[in-house]
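Input structure tokens:
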């Protein structure tokens, strides 16, 4: 009688299970038909039920699909791995992650609240790069960003001719935002992890000559009422290697006549936020002494703003004068950065060691970049000098000896 009753109960259980919807959660049974704690099945997939702490350290239940598990033993193995991840705090966060676009806005808002964190120019460049990423994947939530999204962005940029260097900078900007997302516990691993930067070849710049600098300075005086100041600005950059904005912010207190040095970055706003000193060469010292004679008595700046009024502020830019000047001089491709290129190139060709040049221009690699980009100039210079060596017959005047 009992065996009939047991058979009937089993049949009823089978009937209930057969009527159960595939979208309902069902306990997973082991080989002895015993339920496995925390392991469920739904719609043909194995799902783990875990108790984890959220961002507020409160205990909550999280359901995790065991992707790839086809059998109960496979599900059990993946379930064990989840326990290890939980112990390492490597599980995805419980709270729904914000979209990349929303988080990028928050990222820049926080940067604005800590103005000393990054230079304004750096933030502006980063905004431009992140804007491109927002266009590409702004609606994707942070925890859903994958390497394929990054790769697609890189492919898109390269397909329109963007250089490898620029794309690498775009990826660095993305990494900066996602690193903050890791700090905020929205992510555990960067989707850019182990991503190799693109290889790129620096563009070959045409070398500006001393004659070109002279032509530009003469043209500036003809086309602009600020021509003399602009000419001084060009010459100072060409003889010191200063960047355009660094030069604009220079003050007379940065000129050390006793030590024969020009201090760049004393205001803490230069690219690497560190002070560097350029030792006077003959042209730089002569240029500074000529400028000191023309120094504006009501300004501490080497290049004061022509519209400063009662305030002592530096000139903001000479872009308009540059446009007029290079057109007049017939050097339409000339840029302010060519002055820095001029300084480095002629320093190399003068035989100055790369480490010293790197110190003057603010490179932190000890001259590696200069050797990579400008090293060929040193080779060309030595080859040119070698052509002066002659092994042909020559008249030699011998010293006269006293006669008896």
């Amino acid at each position: 009688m009992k065996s009939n009753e047991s058979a009937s109960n089993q049949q009823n259980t089978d009937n209930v299970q057969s009527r159960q919807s595939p979208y309902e959660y069902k306990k997973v049974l082991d080989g002895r038909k015993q339920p496995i704690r925390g392991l469920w099945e739904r719609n043909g997939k194995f799902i783990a039920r875990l108790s984890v702490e959220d961002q507020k350290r409160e205990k909550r239940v999280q359901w995790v699909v065991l992707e790839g598990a086809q059998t109960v033993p496979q599900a059990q193995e993946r379930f064990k791995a989840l326990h290890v991840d939980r112990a390492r705090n490597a599980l995805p966060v419980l709270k729904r992650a914000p979209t990349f676009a929303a988080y990028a806005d928050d990222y820049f808002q926080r940067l604005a609240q800590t103005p000393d964190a990054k230079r304004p120019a750096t933030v502006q460049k980063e905004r431009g790069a992140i804007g491109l990423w927002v266009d590409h994947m702004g609606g994707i939530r942070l925890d859903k960003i994958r390497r394929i999204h990054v790769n697609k962005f890189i492919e898109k940029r390269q397909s329109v001719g963007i250089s490898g260097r620029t794309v690498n900078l775009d990826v660095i900007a993305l990494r900066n935002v996602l690193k903050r997302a890791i700090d905020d516990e929205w992510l555990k691993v960067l989707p850019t992890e182990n991503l190799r930067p693109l290889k790129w070849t620096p563009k070959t710049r045409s070398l500006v000559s001393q004659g070109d600098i002279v032509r530009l300075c003469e043209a500036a005086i003809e086309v602009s009422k600020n021509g003399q100041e602009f000419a001084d600005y060009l010459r100072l950059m060409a003889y010191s290697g200063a960047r355009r904005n660094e030069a604009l912010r220079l003050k007379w207190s940065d000129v050390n006549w006793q030590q024969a040095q020009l201090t760049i970055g004393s205001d803490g706003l230069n690219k690497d936020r560190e002070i560097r000193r350029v030792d006077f060469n003959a042209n730089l010292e002569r240029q500074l002494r000529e400028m000191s004679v023309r120094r504006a008595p009501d300004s501490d700046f080497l290049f004061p703003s022509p519209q400063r009024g009662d305030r002592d502020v530096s000139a903001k830019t000479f872009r308009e004068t540059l446009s007029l000047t290079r057109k007049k001089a017939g050097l339409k491709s000339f840029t302010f950065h060519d002055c820095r290129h001029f300084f480095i190139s002629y320093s190399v060709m003068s035989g100055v060691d790369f480490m010293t040049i790197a110190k003057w221009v603010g490179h932190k690699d000890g001259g590696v970049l200069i050797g990579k980009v400008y090293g060929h100039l040193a080779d060309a210079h030595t080859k040119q000098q070698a052509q002066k060596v002659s092994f042909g017959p020559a008249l030699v005047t011998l010293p006269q000896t006293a006669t008896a």
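The mean pLDDT is 84. The chain has three domains: 17-87, 100-183, 210-384.
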